[in-house]
Structure formats: C-alpha cells, structure tokens
Amino acid sequence: MTADPAQPDRLPYPFDRAHCLSPLPHTRLLSLPGLARVTLPSGDPARIAVRHADVVRVLTDRRFSRRAMHTTPGGPRWTLADRYEPSLLGLDPPDHTRVRRLCAPAFRRERVDGLAPSIDGHVHQLLDTFLAAGSGGEPVDLLAVLALPLAEAVLCDVLGVGPERRAPLAEWARRKLSLTSLPPRQARAGHDALLAHCGELLFSPRDGDALVPGGLLDRLREAYDAGVLSRPELLATTVNLLVAGHATTAATLTNGLLALLNHPDQWQTLRDDRTLLGPAVEEILRFDTIADVGLPRLAVEDVSLGATMIKAGEAVVPSHAHAGRDPAVFDRPDAFDITRAPGPHLAFGHGPHRCIGAGLAVLELRTAIGALADHAPGLRLAEPATTLPFPGGSLIGGVSRLPLITNGT
Questions:
Q1: pTM of the model
Q2: 291 by DSSP, 3-state: which?
Q3: What does the pLDDT look like over 177-218, one tens digit per residue?
Q4: Closest CA to 81 of 291, 391, 298, 395
Q5: From CA 52, how far away is CA 316, in angstroms rounded?
Q6: How far apart are CA 103 and CA 241, in angstroms?
Q7: Which of 146, 122, 118 is nearest to 132 (CA)?
Q8: Within 263-383, where are the H helices?
C-alpha cells in the first residue's frame, strides 16, 4: 500500500490556530484514505493518524512502540529537548505493565469514589474565593483562582505530598510540556528543576514533611526500596504523574467552561437539567481534547494502516482530537452538544497507555462544573473569546487565562 499522492506534504506540527475558537486544523485529513505526513517539532518526519480506527490501532498495536521512539539510534525525535524517560508514558509492556500495576491502586474506582468528599471540599473552598474575588464585578481568572489550585490540591492528596512541599508545578509543567513554545535549553531546564524537586521528595530524609505515609509516592518509594522499581523509573514516573495529573485537568476544566459559556444555550440546558452533567463532561472531553495529539510511536516493523504502509523506523503521531471529530463515529462531529449520547472519544487515550487517572479527572470536572452551575449560574465571559491569550507550541493546548464575570444572575 502507498500513500495517496493527493495528501499534503509534511504539515508542520504543532498545528497553528489563530485563537481558541478556530476550527480544529486539517480536518480534511479525515477524508483521506492514508496517513498524511507531518514534520515533528524536532524537524524529523512522521505520519499522523487522524481517523478514529487508525488512532485506536496505533495506541494498541505493539508494533508501534513508545520506548523505541526514544531509544532507536538515529531514529526520529519528538522535540529537540527530548530525553528518554522510563515512565508510564515512555515504557512498553512488560515494563509498562509492571509500573502501572504499582500505580493502579491509587486510581481504582473505589479509591476515587472515596475521594469525592475531599474533592467537594476543595471545590467549594476555592469557589468561595473565586466568587468573593468577583463580588464587586471585577473579572476573575478561572484558571488561576480555581482550576489550577483544584488540580494541584487533588493531585497532591492522591500522591501524598505534604502541604509544605508543594512546589510551583504550573511553571515547571509549562516548560516540561513545551514542544516549540520555549527554546530547548529552557524546556530542559524546567524538566531538570522538576526532576530535582522529585528527587528531594523521594530521597530526602523522612522528616515528616515530604511524603504522607500511605500516599502513592510513599508506596512507589517502598517499591523502589524493595527493588521492584529502578531509580530512573521512580523519578520519571513521579514527574509524569505530577505534570499530567495537574496540567491536563486544569486545562480541561478551563476549556470546558469556555465551551459552555461560548454556547449559552448549552450552559442554560445544563443549569436546567443537572442529569446532563455527566454527558456534558464527556462532550467537553470529545469536543476540545486539550492535547491535539498523543505522544508519537515508532513502528518496529512494517505495518499497513489505512491506505499507507508504515515502514519500520517511521514515527506515527496519533491525533486524539481528530479522532473525536471523525464523522464515521460521531454524528455532527463539529457541533458542541451536551445532550448527545456519550461516544468513544479518545481524550484519555486508549489501550495500555490510557490515562490512569481518567476516573479521577472526570470526578473533578463533574464536581467543579456542577458547583459552578449551582452557585454561579450567571457566569459570563469578561471579554470576547477571540481575544483570549491562546499560546501555541505546547503538548497541552487552551487559553492561558479565562477571565469571567461572576456576579450575574
């Protein structure tokens, strides 16, 4: 099989959008029989999978390897700052399976359900601050005042990081998640700072202020002490959990409120019928997947995908965002409709690398959005959405602030 000659040649990734309401770029790729070519942030070539079925295949077929993407001599690189990290995101089975099993108990359904009261407490405490800040009619930034603090508080509760040791995760995550938004040296410096912080958390003398006994990081440290985890695996997994567990949830909550408020009929529908809260969260995840693409895989042997033969040694990028707009799977895919029956979106990925904290993220989103609908039904944008800062060049997209008026009716 060969690629369709009508396909565009080497689209540069990350894709540019003029503002946060710009359509998802290159949806025309969904109608092509093969996989288009893209240029990775590193400048290396790759293919991009956009159709739902092809993305699922890339995420589940073991011939597409995460580890080989980093460890193959002379192979394509994701970014110029890329380094191999033996974390949940960088390993293949069976090593990935071993590390994931160590993390899984903290994110099981019964454990997440047990966190509901504390998450509700965090939400309402932060909501009080948010509403008080806007009581005089001043705009309040949802991301800074509610979304980021909520995600950080819940994540640190799960990881078992004491309040005295919680660090400026937002800035480090911004650097860690950079594709082209920062020079490689700055991106690597952010990663090194976060890695050093994790080393202090995990390996400093246990004086009672670093790790909470019984928290996930405490359990992972015990696994390291028992020889089940290597030091690089422990450090890389801790970085992975800190960044992915806080940046993604905060961005999804912020972008989700933007989508609801930019579709006032949908916000009103949710206010009128709270049974739609679950479907609303699923539609937010499908409609505006905050990471346009998942991390690239390297084909370790020839694989036919659609009308394209992927050669061994070629990189493939799975586009979760385009999969969520596939008309073969979703009716009216470009419409934001919280009343649609939830479908198989890929916002959390699929297969072995599906986000381990998906259930926790959904609970946070439902709790926060439900509380805002209950206690701030008159929320509205403080400025036109098209003027909101929408920096590109990061693995996690979305607006960098969301100023809202809180005292409407």
A1: 0.93
A2: coil
A3: 888 888 888 888 888 888 888 888 888 755 555 678 889 999
A4: 395
A5: 14
A6: 10
A7: 146
A8: 264-272, 277-287, 320-323, 358-375
